[in-house]
Amino acid sequence: MSDPQNGERGGGVHSKLRLYLWIYGTALVFIFISILLIISFGFINSEPGERCCPAAYSCFSLGLICLFVYVNVMFLRRKFPVNWILSCCMAVLFGLGTASMLPEQTAGHVVLLALEVIVMMGLLLLLGYWLPAKCHPLIYIALTSFCLAIVMYVLCKIISDHSPEYTETADVWISHCVLWTVACPMLLFQSHVINGYWSSESPYLDIPLCAVLLLIDFLACYAFLDAVEEVDYAFENLFSSRTIQLLVRVGRSEM
């Protein structure tokens, strides 16, 4: 006679594996389509370096409105194939918005940045898969994020100490470390939700929604990494002596 517990355990493993394949497989398909859109917009852009901001604003606004309605109307999240159609539409809107927002992108640049984001997201989501016994998910997220922050701080310290001057390369690497330190708790939380650590059941009925949220994470990280130089330039100007003196003068004049 077969052991019922082993059968239930085997069925649970297979159902979880099926859940992961659906969520992460769908997210990878959405990401691949977004990468193609970003590369395509780089080729068809007649003015290199220029962004199509009105198109980006329109796509992001429509995508966010659809996401808000989709999340709050349970009928849409539970009705097949309406949930998949809406999720695919939102994925295309967010992909088009990101592609319109970015300047001209070469294929090599897009592939390298996309690989970095996919690998780092995969590692952080994999960290969220493992949860020690009798450990609250929030405590695990806090401890893991703190450990990663220490590792990233050490890396930033090594990079800055081994740079004769504060070069652009060191600045870029430090910005990458800061991004993944900030993204760590969010991705761990999403991984815990997918694995059912925050509720009694895994989100079988919200597979399209989970895939769209992972796509949004990817696009946000990609856009930040693509604009690292601009972000660093903005922070340098923000904390420059001239800006500080200007703020002091404005504060005195208001007093």
From TrEMBL:
Name recorded for this polypeptide: Uncharacterized protein
Native organism taxonomy: Eukaryota, Metazoa, Ecdysozoa, Arthropoda, Hexapoda
Transmembrane segments: 21-43, 55-75, 82-102, 108-131, 138-160, 172-193, 205-225
Keyword entries, A-Z: Membrane, Transmembrane, Transmembrane helix
